[in-house]
Structure formats: structure tokens, C-alpha cells
Design goal:
Length: 67
């Protein structure tokens, strides 16, 4: 038995490798996160995880951890 052709789902990225961004419509609708690595003046490294609300442009959570 031959399977039916399924309708292809749209990809969340474009052919050039960039993602299709979801535009925020209200607060807490779209969030993004970013890891930031930095060093103190004495050379010790630390890493932060920033979770940001795209609509309000405010940091919801900033977690700090040393390597």
C-alpha cells in the first residue's frame, strides 16, 4: 500500500539560514534568551543567562554562574 502525500509543513527558517521571527503582540508573548560570558578584573570567568520579554524589552530573569 502506497502512503498518501502529506501536506508539507512550513519551515521556521528561510533558505539563507535565518529564522522567521515571531512578532510580539503583547507582554509575555515572545521571549528570548542569551548566554553572556565575561571575566572579572582578576581574570575569573562568569556566565549569565538573560531571559528577556521582547514586547516590553525588559529582563525577566538574569541567572549568574561561575565556570
Amino acid at each position: 500500500m502506497v502512503p498518501r502525500n502529506h501536506e508539507k509543513k512550513g519551515r521556521p527558517w528561510l533558505n539563507n539560514g535565518s529564522c522567521v521571527r515571531l512578532r510580539p503582540e503583547r507582554a509575555n508573548h515572545v521571549r528570548f534568551y542569551d548566554f553572556v560570558l565575561d571575566r572579572t578584573h582578576d581574570g575569573r570567568a562568569f556566565r549569565t543567562l538573560n531571559i528577556i520579554d521582547e514586547f516590553a524589552r525588559e529582563a525577566l530573569v538574569i541567572r549568574l554562574d561561575r565556570n
